[in-house]
Amino acid sequence: MTDLTRLSAAELANTLRSREASSVEVTRAHLDRIAAVDTTLHAFLRTSPEEALAAARRVDAARAQGEELPPLAGVPIAVKDNVVTRGLETTAASRILAGWIPPYDATVVSRLRAAGMPILGKTNLDEFAMGSSTEHSAYGPTRNPWDVGRIPGGSGGGSAAAVASFAAPLAIGSDTGGSIRQPAAVTGTVGVKPTYGGVSRYGLIALASSLDQIGPVARSVEDAAMLHEVLAGHDPHDSTSLPDPVAGFVSAARSGDVRGMRIGVVRELGGHGYQDGVRASFEQALEVLAGLGAELLEVSCPSFDYALAAYYLILPAEASSNLARFDGMRYGLRVEPDDGEVTAERVMAATRGAGFGAEVKRRIILGTHALSAGYYDAYYGSAQKVRTLIQRDFAAAFERADVLVSPTTPTTAFRFGEKLDDPLAMYLSDVATIPANLAGIPGMSLPSGVSGDGLPVGFQILAPARADTRLYEVGGVLERALKSAWGGSLLDVHLMGGASER
Ligand code: GLN
């Protein structure tokens, strides 16, 4: 019998439509898989088996009635724990939100429910999505299914590991500086950061509001496109939500063409500081694209050299403001001082002292300093100017190229502890992903192969704002070519030792 967890979301959708399996069977198979692998991996902070099976039963009943159902109806999904779910504890992997039960659903969660997608549980992340390894989770790290001694990326390491370990066919991530794409790169999965405003942020626990974007995590480009079509579309609850119609991602993923397409290789992303095996895999993918008729050219974006510095002023500034709401009065944890008077200020200090981890405190201090009266122009003001220069570099590059490409990350998955005591080394994990957030443009990471160390390498595609379909066109074409060369997907061939029997 087919192992249902080995099927892609698109295959599961067909299996459900033809009634070869029910959603209850599919959902149960994934819950069983979670039970088997997640004590080791810790991709999930909590599961919601009863709610998931109840949702699956509703879909099965509707299908039995002959109702017309949305394409992914009955296909289960995992949700990153910084996206609020009504009635299901949501902590953003912080102690300060322990036990907090949201009274409402994020817009993307409402859309998953309306699409008939059972929610398996909430995935682990670095606290408040600050990090590149999940080591900053207050509840312990997630392990990389490729090597359990290594990090699964971050902040969305839980979503990536859940999908890479076949514990969930799809997941929701959030990307402020790379937290969908970098975990995808180091786990051999596909992750997409949509255009800023393309997917509603209502109900996403804010990290840096001008950079945050929710997006899909999947095992194939087609699956990411299917989920993207469920998530996208205008939302009156989010003032930055775009009015664009949602269509074309799936068809672009299935039947794109790169003949005559101008693909710009970004000189500043990929040279010095990138692991040899990462560069080799990237270059092989470029050859594949050239062989399929794409026109390759080199583009230069000189301001990218300052992207990381600008990001680590803008992000902490916005984060320190967003995190001010965690005051011990409104949500989650409340700690009273052990001694002396109980005043509002002292409760706030005690709560925040006990509730936030070291990385969160570091960024609050940095952001508060950057926004302080005497330093505002020197730090925050300069960073905003750099942001404008980065946007101009992109605009100039997209005059010459239809899409831009680079390795997603400088290295493959690193070992636990390797960068934990060196914040700057950790921050460098996102050197190639951050420019897209600063400019609000869409980006995708898909696997291009394995490095000499046997670990997956991510290939990043960037497109102009509102041209997300181009990611799916190029990604779909590249993925098809690589899969036929490998004889299956990277995860099937290298992690699972062969394609599943169908
Ligand atoms: N690793 C980056 C950071 O720590 C990105 C975070 C994210 O995208 N949420 O800020």
Task: Describe it.
The protein is of the alpha/beta class and 502 residues long. It has a single domain (4-304, 387-495), classed as Alpha-Beta Complex (Amidase signature (AS) enzymes). It has helices at residues 9-17, 23-41, 49-64, 107-114, 157-164, 181-187, 221-231, 249-255, 276-291, 307-322, 344-355, 358-371, 377-400, 423-427, 434-439, 468-486, 490-495, and strands at residues 44-47, 77-80, 119-123, 171-174, 190-193, 214-218, 262-266, 295-299, 403-407, 443-450, 456-462. It has an eleven-stranded mixed β-sheet, sandwiched between helices. Helix 4 links the parallel strand 2 (77-80) and strand 3. The longest helix has 24 residues, at 377-400. The radius of gyration is 22 Å and the shape is globular. The chain starts with 8 loop residues before the first helix and ends in a 7-residue tail after the last helix. Glutamine is lined by residues 129-132, 154-155, 174-179, 207, 315, 430.
Largest sheet: 11 strands, mixed
Distance between the termini: 8 Å
Strand/helix succession: HHEHEHEHEHEEHHEHEHHHHEHHEEHH
Q: What small molecules accompany the polymer chains?
A: glutamine
Tell me, briefly, the overall form: globular
**In the CATH hierarchy, what is the architecture at level 2?**
Alpha-Beta Complex
Domains (count) = 1
Give the strand line-up of the largest sheet: 1-3-2-4-6-5-10-11-9-7-8
Cα-atom radius of gyration: 22 Å
CATH class: Alpha Beta
CATH homologous group name: Amidase signature (AS) domain
SS strand fraction? 5-15%
Give the overall average pLDDT: 96
Helix content: 40-55%
What is the CATH topology assignment?
Answer: Amidase signature (AS) enzymes
Number of strands: 11
Oligomer description: single chain
